[in-house]
Amino acid sequence: MRSTGDLVIRRAAAADRRLVQSLLSQARWRHFHLDWRDPIDLLDREPNLLAFLGDRLVAHLAAPPDPPGAAWLRSFCVDAALTPLSTWRPLWAEAAASCTAHDVLRVASLLSGDWMRPLLTEAGFRETNAVVFFEWRRQPMPEPPPNPATPRRLTSRDLPDVVRVDERAFGLLWRNGVESLAAAMQQSIVATGIEVDGRLVGYQLTTASPFGAHLARLAVDPDHQGRGLATTLVIDLTRRLAARGFDAVTLNTQADNVRSQDLYRRLGFRETGQRYPVFETTLAP
User: Could you give the 3-state DSSP secondary structure of residue 154?
Assistant: First the structure.
């Protein structure tokens, strides 16, 4: 526990669940990362910090690494009684020290609102990318490319292979760790993979959303890219979803991932205009 001005800062714990849940639902200023894991379920993962004004919880910041070596700002929420900057400075200083102590030197954040920009900029974050959104609404799909691989349903036993493909397909910052991928698989309404010579080399995970279905993850091992496997997975996905009554699919990808955007446009996905800038910083060891 540490005091800074009128604020008292301490680590969060699982026992704080109800207290933090109340803040997250009522805070004036709220930032949440876009993924499958609820910040409430990560209270025992460092850095995960609470700021109190007297007996009142007024701010929460969480940036636990996932995968090891990289972290995203997963939650930053501030009560209306305070300004974001007045709580960000001491909380981020504590969180950055915790990241450094655990050899997590690369930290990123989505810009979920313009109110976050001066906070991130002052802390040394720089805009490096963006997350862009696409949507498909029953546009005609081409026939899948000719290849011997047919997508199959994934089970929990496939998790180690899904993690292996994910690690090979994405750079450090954009990978998902085993716990995140396990959560994504559990929440998926359609989870399929594709094999070559009996070995999983690609997969997709799709969850339900208030607007239809959301293609949350698509990955193909680099050694097998360019062979139509991702195309096959997406076409198969749309057919499975149509059979279940879904007529829309959303997804997001990085603004600099031109190859994936070309794939989605070729299959009839259209950019929605929604995007979140990505800010990054590298901490000194």
Answer: coil
Per-residue model confidence (pLDDT) at position 36: 81
Sign of CA dihedral 24, 26, 28, 32: positive
pLDDT at 2: 63
Distance separating alpha carbons of residues 40 and 149, to the nearest angstrom: 40
List the domains of the chain with CATH numbers: 2-124 (3.40.630.30), 132-277 (3.40.630.30)
What does the alpha-carbon distance between residue 2 and residue 221 come to, in Å, rounded to a whole number?
46
Mean pLDDT for the stretch of residues 200-224: 94
Helix 258-266 to helix 229-243 angle, to the nearest 10 degrees?
50
For range 76-93, the mean pLDDT? 95
DSSP string, 236-269: HHHHHHHHTT---EEEEEETT-HHHHHHHHHTT-
Structure-block tokens of residue 154: 């994934």
* Global pTM value: 0.93
Query: Edge-to-edge strands of the sheet including 212-220?
Result: 70-72, 106-110, 270-282, 126-136, 249-254, 212-220, 199-209, 188-196, 152-153
pLDDT band at 3 (very low <50, low <70, confident <90, very high): low
